[in-house]
Amino acid sequence: MTIQHAATGVAPSVRAxxxxxGASSGTPMVSFEGVxxxxxxxxxxxxxxxxxxxxxxxxxxxxxxxxxxxxxxKSTLIRLVNGLEKxxxxxxxxxxxxxxxxxxxxxxxxxxxxxxxxxxxxxxxSRTAFDNVALPLEIAGVDAKTIKAKVGPLLDLVGLxxxxxxxxxxxxxxxxQRVGIARALATDPKLLLSDEATSALxxxxxxxxxxxxxxxxxxxxxxxxxxxxxxxxxxTIATDVAVxxxxxxxxxxxxxxxYASPKHDTTRTLLASSLALPEWLRTGIKHSPSxxxxxxxxxxxxxxxxxxxxxxxxxxxxxxxVNILAGGIEEIGGKPxxxxxxxxxxEPAVIxxxxxxxxxxGLSTEVLGYVA
Amino acid sequence: MSPDMMLNLILKSLGQTLQMVAAAGVxxxxxxxxxxxxxxxxxxxxxxxxxxINRIVGLIINAARSTxxxxxxxAIIPFxxxxxxxxxxxxxxxxxxxxxxxxxxxxxxxxxxxxxDKGLIEAARAMGATPTQIVFKVLLAEARPxxxxxxxxxxxxxxxxxxxxGAVGGGGLGDLGIRYGYQRFMPEMMLAVVVVLIVxxxxxxxxGDALARRFDKRNRKN
Lengths: 372, 222
Fold this sequence. Notes:
The complex is a heterodimer.
Chain A: H1 6-9, H2 11-21, E1 30-39, E2 48-58, E3 63-67, H3 74-81, E4 89-94, E5 97-98, H4 104-111, E6 114-118, H5 129-139, H6 144-157, H7 173-185, E7 191-195, H8 203-220, E8 223-228, H9 231-237, E9 240-245, E10 248-254, H10 255-260, H11 265-272, H12 279-282, E11 294-302, H13 310-318, E12 323-332, E13 335-345, H14 348-361, E14 364-371
Parallel strand pairs in A: 3-8, 3-9, 6-7, 7-8
Antiparallel strand pairs in A: 1-2, 1-4, 4-5, 9-10, 11-13, 11-14, 12-13
Helix pairs in contact in A: 5-6, 5-7, 6-7, 7-8, 13-14
Chain B: H1 3-41, H2 51-66, H3 69-75, H4 77-84, H5 90-114, H6 118-126, H7 131-162, H8 173-182, H9 187-215
Helix pairs in contact in B: 1-5, 1-7, 1-8, 2-5, 4-5, 5-7, 6-7, 7-9, 8-9
C-alpha cells in the first residue's frame, strides 16, 4: 500500500528546475529511435530479444545512467552506441550520425570519438600504463612525439603520473580503472561509455573512480553514458537515469525525480537496497492493523520539504507520540534527499489527521505496514 | 672405436641435428604462425570471418597431424625431391620435418591466441582498431609468452622427430644412436647419444622458458 501525496505539490517545481540545469538545447549526443535487437533466431531456434523498441536520448554534457538487473539488455544497449553491436531494427544516432549507416571505416572514425571503459578494465598485460594509454593513439596513427606529449598529462589527470612504467599486474583494481579512463580519453572523445566500470571494485575505490568521472565530465565537458546494476552509482554521479528491464526502458528522467518518486516496480526494487529497513524492524511488520498497533510510515523529504521543520509539526499535529525508528539524509543529483521511518498510533482518527497533514505540506509518504 | 672417433661422430651428428631442427623450426614456424593466426581469427563472427576455409584448413591440419611422422617422411618423397633435388641426406630431411612442424606449431599458435581475453579484442575494436591492428598490437603482443612456450615445445618435438629421418639418410643424433648403438652393439655410443640429446633438450627448454618469462608481464608483483 502506497500513498503518494507529493505529485501535486512539490515534484513539478523540482522537475522544472531539473530541466533548466540539465541538457543544453539542440540535438542530443545519443538518441535511440525504436531500437530492437534480437540474437540468434536461425535454424528454427527462437530469437532472443535483448532490446525491444528503445526510444531514449542522452543529452550533451550530461552523465546519464542506465540501470537494470543483469540480463536486462543494458550491455547490448551501450554497445549499440559505438557499433560493437548492430540493431536489428531502429536507429542509433550519435551526435547527428546514424551509426548503422556507417561503413567499417566510418565506424572506426566514430569509435575514435567515443571512449569506453570496462568492468574488467581490459588493459593489455604486455604493456605498461603509459603504453596502454598510448594504444588508441597508435591505432589512430598519431606520431610517437605527439603520443609522448599526450600520455603524460593524461596519466597526471587520473592521478597516476608516477605509475607510467608499471604493468597492469603491478597496479590495484582502482589504478587499473584509472589507466582505463586515461586510455579512453586519449583520443579526445566527445562521449565516454562506461560498462559497469566500478562493479569489480570495492566501495571506497568505487567512490574515488566515480568522483574522477564526475570531475572529467565537469572539466572536459564530456558526455558520459554509463550502465550499472547499482543504484548507488547512479545516485552518486548521474544527472539523468533510465531504468531498463527485459529490453524496455520502463522509466527515465532526472535522477532526483526518479529516486524521489519511482513509478515502476523495477525501479523500486533497485532502490530498495538503498532504502532498506533495518533487520529488526523488517521482521515484525504486518500488512493490516489490529487494535493497539502502530502504523509504520516512511516520510520522504526532498525539494522544498527537505528544508522545512516538518517532523516537529507532524508531532504537534498528531497529538500522538511519534517515534523515529530509522532514517538518513543523502545527496542525490546534488540535492538533499531525506528518508525517515516513523511509527504512530494506527487509530483511524490519528491516521486521518496524518493524511491531511501530508496533503497540506506535500510530504511524500509510504505506509510500510503495522507493528505491535 | 676410439673415444676420439666417437667424439667426432657425435659432433658431426649433433651438427646435423642442429641444422635440421633449426631450419625446419624456423621455416615451419614462419609458415605455421600465420596459419595459426588464421585458425584463431576466422571463425564465425571473428576478426576475419571465413568459417568454411577455416574448417577446410582445420581438416588438412588434422590430417597432417594424424599421419605418423615416419610415414609422412616416406609419403612426401616426390615432393622432397621436387624441392631439394634429392630424397636422401640432411637437406632432404628438412622438408618432412618442416611439413610436420607447420600444423603442430599452427595449432599451438591457435591455442595461444584463443586464450587471450575477448575483452581485449572488444576494447581494441572500441578504439577503432582495424582487424590487422588487433592482430599485431593486441593478439600477438599479448600472446608472446605463450608463443614462446609454443616455439620451445615445437623445437623439442623436432629434436625427437629428427631421430627418425635416419630412414632417409638424414643423419643426426638419433640416426647415430640406431646405427652404432643398436645395430653395431655399441651401448656406450647409445648412452652418449642419449646424454647429448637430454642436454640439448634441457638447453632448449631452459632458454625458451627464460624468454617466455621475460615476455610475461602478467604476474609481476611490486
